[in-house]
Write a structure and sequence with these properties.
The chain has about 700 residues and is mainly beta. It is about 5% helix and about 45% strand.
C-alpha cells in the first residue's frame, strides 16, 4: 500500500493480488476524514493512472459531500484505485496509520469484493498441478451446461471457471458425468471419468480441454464408476474403480499401454465395506468408492471413501499394501478424515502435491448440516508417517470467484462500426472502420488486443480511389471469412458503393474481390453499411444510409448481385448500420438513427424493430412501420457516453446471454469512437438493455473455450 501527498489533495493507491480492502474499511475512512468534498475516480491499471481530481469522468465516479462512496465502488481484484479526498493533514496521517495497521488484513482475503463469491461447489474433486497452475475438475458445478468443467487457480485460495473441459457431444454418455481425474501422459492429457455409470477416457492437448473420446465407447461394457489411474515406478499402469458386486466394491486391473482398455485377466477385488465406521447409521448402504493410490518407498497407499455419499458419516479411509493388487490392509486409524472441522459428508477426494512439495488432499462436503447438494470443495494438509496417513484438522475452503465485473468501454482504441465473429481458434475477432480496416481480438469480449489491419496500402480496395473503407461486415462462410465493406467519401452519395473481400484466416490478410455495385449503378443513393445474411440457402445483402434501407439477393458465391435481382426497400430514411437477428422465430432489425460522427455532439442511438419475415414489414411495439421511420430505442447516450450506435452482430455466451458491441464517444475521454459492449436481454418478445443506456459496470460474459 502506497500513499502520496500532493499539493492540493491526497491520493491513496493500492493494488493487492489477494483482493482489496473491505468496503467497511473504506466507509470508515470516509467517516473519519469527514471531507468537505470527495472526488473518487476509479481506473483499471490497463487504462491509467490518470489524475483528474475535480472532474466527473465517464469511466469513473464523482461524488459530492454526503454521497455514499462505498455504494458506488465496484471493486476488482487486479485493479488500481485512486481516491481523491480533500482533508486536513492531521486526518491524513491518522488514516495512514489506520491503513498500515489493517494492510495485513487485506492480504488474507481470498474472496474478492468484485462480485459474488463462495465455495467451489463441485463433488468428487480432483486437482492437477501443471505448468505452475492448479486445475480442478469434479462432478457438477456452477456452470450452466452439462459435461465436465475445468476451474483454474494460481494459489489454491481462489478459483475461477476456465472452460468446459468435456462436452457431452464429445463423450460416450449424455448424462451422469462424475468423478473426473486428469493426467499428463505421453505429451497429452487424459481424463478418466464416469458417464452414465460407465468408465470412459478422453484426450486433449491442454488441461483445459476440450477433451474428446476418439471412440465413443466405455473402457468396459459392465457398469462401473469412480476410476483412478496409478502408474508404478516401472511404468505399469493400473486402474482402480468401483464395480457393483454386492454393493460398491473397489477393484483393480492392469491397463493396456493405450490407457483406453484393461487386461481383463488381471481384475482383482481390493476393498469392500464392512467395518463399523464404513456402515453408516443414517443412510444404510455398503459402499467403498472414490479410490486413489500412491506409492512411498515399497508401500502402496490407497485412500478411499465409505458410507453413502448422502450420509453425514461419509468419510475417508486408508489401506496399505505391498503390491498394487494387494492384499490391502485397512488402517487401524480409520477413518483418516470424517466430519473434519464440523463439516458433514466429507469424502471422495484425491491426494496431490502443491507447488511447494507439500502433500494435500482435496475432498468435498455437504453444503451444510441439513442439505447435501451442491457439495463444496475443501483442501486438507496431508502427511505420510510410516503406514499411516494423517490429515490436518484445519481444512481450507477456497473461494469460487464469479460475477467478475467489466467496465465500458471495453477498449479505448477507436473502433467505429464494429463487426464481430468467433473463430475456430477460440478468439473473438472485431473489425472496425479505419483506413485499412482495424482488426482486434479477445478471448472474453472484455479484454481486446490489436491484431493488425485487413489490408495494406498496396492491397486495399481501390474502386473509389479517394474513399475510405467504412463499416466492414465480416461473416464466416464455409471455411472462409467474407468481408462486405463500403467505400465512400463524405458527400459522395452517388459514387459510394459496396465491395467484398475474403480471407482463409480471421486475422487476414483479406483479398479484395472488387465492388458489387456503386450507388449510381444500383439506383440507391448512399449505398454504404452492408450486412450479409443467409436464409433458406440463399444469400442476401442489406445496406443503406438515410436514403432508405434496401436488400437484394446475391449470386451463389456471394461475390456479385444475382442476375435480374432488384433492390427492395425494407426500412425508411432514418436508419443506417443495419443488422438483422433471428430470435424465437421473429426477425429483429437493429439500426442506428441520428448523427454518428460529431464527437460529443453526436446524437447516434441504437434502435430496433420486429417482423415475422426477414424481408419485413418491420414494426415498432405499436405496430407502426419502420418504413415510416418508427422504431424502438435500444441504447441511447447519457452524460458520459454519447453517439451510441452502429452495433455488431449479437454474440451468445456459454450461459445463453446475448451481448452486443457498438461504438460511442466518451465525454472528457479519448476523441475516437471507442468499443462498447452491453448485454441484450429479452422481455415480451423484444430486446432491451437495462436503463437503455451503456453500463458503467456489469458482470462479464460467461465465455468457455
Amino acid at each position: 500500500m502506497t500513499w502520496y501527498n500532493t499539493p492540493s489533495y491526497f491520493v491513496k493507491v493500492f493494488k493487492n493480488k489477494y483482493g482489496v480492502l473491505p468496503k467497511d474499511f473504506m466507509k470508515r475512512i470516509i467517516e473519519l476524514s469527514n471531507p468537505q468534498k470527495i472526488t473518487c475516480i476509479i481506473f483499471e491499471n490497463l487504462f491509467g493512472p490518470y489524475f483528474l481530481p475535480h472532474q466527473s469522468h465517464s469511466y469513473g465516479y464523482a461524488l459530492s459531500s454526503g454521497e455514499n462512496l462505498t455504494s458506488k465502488i465496484q471493486f476488482k481484484s487486479d485493479a488500481t484505485y485512486f481516491f481523491h479526498i480533500t482533508m486536513t493533514k492531521r486526518i491524513f496521517h491518522l488514516l495512514c496509520g489506520l491503513a498500515a495497521a489493517l494492510a495485513g488484513l487485506s492480504a488474507s482475503l481470498s474472496v474478492f469484493a468484485s462480485g459474488k463469491s463462495g465455495g467451489l461447489t463441485i463433488a468428487d474433486p480432483y486437482i492437477l498441478f501443471h505448468g505452475g497452475r492448479y486445475y480442478a475438475y469434479g462432478t457438477g458445478g456452477p456452470a450452466p451446461w452439462g459435461g465436465i468443467s475445468c476451474f483454474v487457480s494460481d494459489d489454491l485460495n481462489t478459483w475461477r471457471l476456465a472452460s468446459q473441459a468435456l462436452n457431452p457431444d464429445d463423450s460416450y454418455g449424455e448424462t451422469g458425468f462424475w468423478a473426473p481425474e486428469v493426467y499428463p501422459l505421453n505429451g497429452r492429457f487424459y481424463m478418466f471419468y464416469t458417464a452414465q455409470e460407465h468408465i470412459c477416457v478422453a484426450e486433449s492437448d491442454s488441461p483445459e480441454g476440450p477433451f474428446i473420446q476418439k471412440e465413443k465407447k466405455p473402457v468396459r461394457e459392465e457398469k462401473s464408476i469412480d476410476s483412478s489411474l496409478f502408474i508404478d515406478e516401472d511404468g505399469t499402469p493400473y486402474i482402480y474403480f468401483v464395480r457393483f458386486t454386492g454393493g460398491n466394491v473397489i477393484w483393480c486391473a492392469e491397463m493396456n499401454p493405450d490407457f483406453l482398455s484393461i487386461k481383463e485377466e488381471t481384475l482383482r477385488e481390493c476393498i469392500r465395506a464392512g467395518e463399523p465406521w464404513e456402515l453408516a447409521r443414517d443412510v444404510k448402504a455398503e459402499v467403498a468408492e472414490g479410490p486413489s493410490v500412491f506409492r512411498r518407498g515399497g508401500r502402496y497407499y490407497m485412500l478411499y471413501s465409505a458410507n453413502h455419499f448422502k450420509s453425514r458419516e461419509y468419510g475417508v479411509g486408508l489401506a496399505v499394501a505391498d503390491n498394487p493388487f494387494g492384499p490391502w490392509r485397512k488402517s487401524r486409524s480409520n477413518p483418516v478424515l470424517q466430519r473434519v472441522g464440523g463439516l458433514q459428508g466429507t469424502g471422495h477426494g484425491a491426494p496431490f502435491t502443491d507447488r511447494d512439495g507439500n502433500m494435500r488432499y482435496v475432498f468435498h462436503s455437504h453444503l451444510n448440516d441439513s442439505v447435501v447438494a451442491p457439495r463444496v470443495l475443501h483442501i486438507a494438509d496431508m502427511k505420510v508417517r510410516g503406514k499411516k496417513v494423517v490429515m490436518g484438522n484445519d481444512c481450507m475452503t477456497p473461494a469460487y470467484v464469479r460475477g467478475e465485473m467489466y467496465s465500458n468501454p471495453v477498449s479505448f482504441e477507436a473502433m467505429p462500426d464494429p463487426s464481430v465473429v468467433k473463430a475456430d481458434d477460440g478468439w473473438f475477432y472485431a473489425y472496425g472502420t479505419a483506413r485499412n480496416v482495424l482488426i482486434m481480438r479477445s478471448r472474453d469480449l472484455v479484454h481486446w488486443e490489436r491484431v493488425g489491419t485487413a489490408f495494406t496500402d498496396e492491397t486495399r480496395p481501390s474502386f473509389e480511389p479517394k474513399a475510405g473503407i467504412w463499416a466492414p461486415d465480416v461473416t464466416r462462410v464455409g471455411d472462409r471469412y467474407v468481408m462486405y465493406y463500403s467505400m465512400s467519401v463524405w458527400g459522395g452519395e452517388w459514387t459510394c458503393g459496396i465491395g467484398c473481400a475474403v480471407s482463409d484466416r480471421p486475422e487476414g490478410p483479406f483479398v479484395d474481390k472488387g465492388k458489387l455495385f456503386r450507388s449510381n449503378e444500383i439506383g440507391v443513393k448512399n449505398s454504404i453499411d452492408p450486412f450479409y445474411i443467409e436464409e433458406n440457402g440463399h444469400k442476401y445483402l442489406f445496406w443503406g444510409s438515410f436514403r432508405g434501407i434496401y436488400w437484394i439477393e446475391l449470386s451463389e458465391d456471394g461475390f456479385s448481385v444475382k442476375p435480374g435481382a432488384k433492390p427492395q426497400l425494407v426500412a425508411g430514411t432514418a436508419f443506417e448500420g443495419t443488422y438483422i437477428h433471428k430470435h424465437d422465430g421473429k426477425y429483429y432489425y437493429f439500426g442506428s438513427v441520428g448523427t454518428c460522427c460529431e464527437g460529443v455532439k453526436s446524437t447516434y442511438r441504437t434502435v430496433v424493430g420486429r417482423s415475422d419475415s426477414l424481408f419485413g414489414p418491420y414494426v415498432d411495439k405499436q405496430g407502426r412501420p419502420l418504413l415510416e421511420n418508427n422504431f424502438e430505442v435500444l441504447i441511447h447516450g447519457d452524460g458520459h457516453y454519447v453517439g451510441t450506435g452502429h452495433n455488431s452482430e449479437i454474440v451468445q455466451d456459454a450461459a445463453g446471454n446475448d451481448w452486443m458491441l457498438y461504438h460511442s464517444f466518451i465525454v472528457d475521454g479519448p476523441k475516437g469512437r471507442t468499443l462498447m459492449m452491453d448485454r441484450i436481454e429479452w422481455k415480451d418478445g423484444w430486446p432491451y438493455v437495462k436503463a437503455s443506456r451503456p453500463a458503467s459496470k456489469a458482470p462479464v460474459p460467461v465465455i468457455v473455450r
